[in-house]
Amino acid sequence: MDKQQLKKIISSDLYRYNGKISKKKLIKLFFSNPGFRYTYLLRKCKFHKQNKNFGLRFLIFKVFLKNYSIKYGYEISEETTIGNGLYINHMGGIVVNSEAIIGNNVNLTTGVVIGQTNRGIKKGVPEIGNKVWIGAHSVIVGKIKIGNNVLIAPNSFVNFDVPDDSIVIGNPASIKYKEDATEQYIVNLI
User: Residue 23's CB: how many other CB atoms inside 10 A?
Assistant: First the structure.
C-alpha cells in the first residue's frame, strides 16, 4: 500500500461518516467520533506495518490504537483485511478476528463479534461481503461467507453462508430474501 492508497481508504471512511471529504471534516471527526478515530488509527498502523516502517510514527499510532481499543472496547487488529468505507456506529464491545475479511461499505455496531471456529467443517473465520450492515450484539463465526447487500439484524447468531440480498434475523438465524436489504441502513456509499 502506498500513501495515495492510504489517503483514498481514509477518505472513503471519512465519506461514510458525513458524506463529505475535507481536511476540516477529517480533523473534526477525528476529535469527535470514536469510531472514526479508531478506524483512522487502524488504517495508519496497517500502512506502516505493511511498509515495514516500524519507526516512531508506527509506535505512536500503535500506542494510540491500543489505548483506544481499551477505552472504547474495540478489538480489531491492523492485520485484519478491511475494505474501503468502514463505519463503526457506537462504542463498545466490537471484536473482529485478525484473519477475517471484511468488504467495502460495512457497518459495525455495538457488541458485534466476528470470530473463529476451531473445530468441525466450519473451522476458520468469516468473509464479509460488500454493503453489509451488522446489528448490535450479532455474532458471526466460522468459515462462512456473508454475501453482498446483507442486513444482519441485532442479536443474530450466524454460522452459515448467507447469499446476496438477504436479511438475517434471530438466534437461530433465518434468512429472508430482500432485493435492497440495506437501503437506508447504509448511507454515503463509496
Answer: 8
